[in-house]
Amino acid sequence: QVQLVESGGDLVQPGGSLRLSCAASGSIFSFNAVSWYRQAPGKERELVASIISGGSTNYADSVKGRFTISRDSAKNAVHLQMDSLKFEDTAVYYCNAKRFAFNYWGQGTQVTVSS
Q1: In terms of Cα–Cα distance, which of 23, 46, 53, 47 is closest to 35?
Q2: Can you say how many angstroms the Cα of residue 111 is from the centroid of all Cα atoms in its chain?
Q3: What is the DSSP string of 32-50?
Q4: Using alpha carbons only, what angle is made at residue 41 by residues 40 and 44, rounded to the nearest 5 degrees?
Q5: Contact at 8 Å (CB) between 79 and 69?
Q6: pLDDT tens digit sequence for 1-21
Q7: DSSP label at 30?
Q8: How many C-beta atoms lie closer than 10 Å to residue 32's C-beta?
Q9: What is d(CA 27, CA 40) in angstroms, rounded to the nearest whole number?
């Protein structure tokens, strides 16, 4: 059974930075894709960023140029570096990993952007 554990969520001021981490119980390179999603109160869960097995990445338009997704082989983790945070980035952030027909989720980590 694959387990994903997110960490790094916190309260931060607008314009600040956070780095979220998603640690996997299996090798991160065994997944077809690892993604970060987020869900704000009263809103649907949305895709934020993905990194595909070959290393290519894609981002939601709302975070392009501010967020960076990367793999860390030493820690067997996927990170989401979030810079220039805005109020509207406030949400619970979830790590998702796909391996063929299987879809795995972490428990989520809260990011709150507030002054």
Answers
A1: 47
A2: 11
A3: SEEEEEEE-TTS--EEEEE
A4: 60
A5: yes
A6: 899 999 999 999 999 999 999
A7: G
A8: 13
A9: 29
pLDDT digits (tens, 9 = 90+) for 43-70: 999 999 999 988 999 999 999 999 999 9
In angstroms, the first-to-last Cα distance of the chain is 40
Residue listed under structure tokens 């709302």: 62
What is the average pLDDT score of the chain? 96
Give the burial string for 80-97 (b: 16+ CB within 10 Å, else e).
Answer: bebeebeeebbbbbbbbb
Cα(20)–Cα(82) distance, integer angstroms: 8
Please count the other Cβ atoms lying within 10 Å of the Cβ belonging to residue 18. Answer: 21
Q: How far apart are CA 70 and CA 46, in angstroms?
A: 19
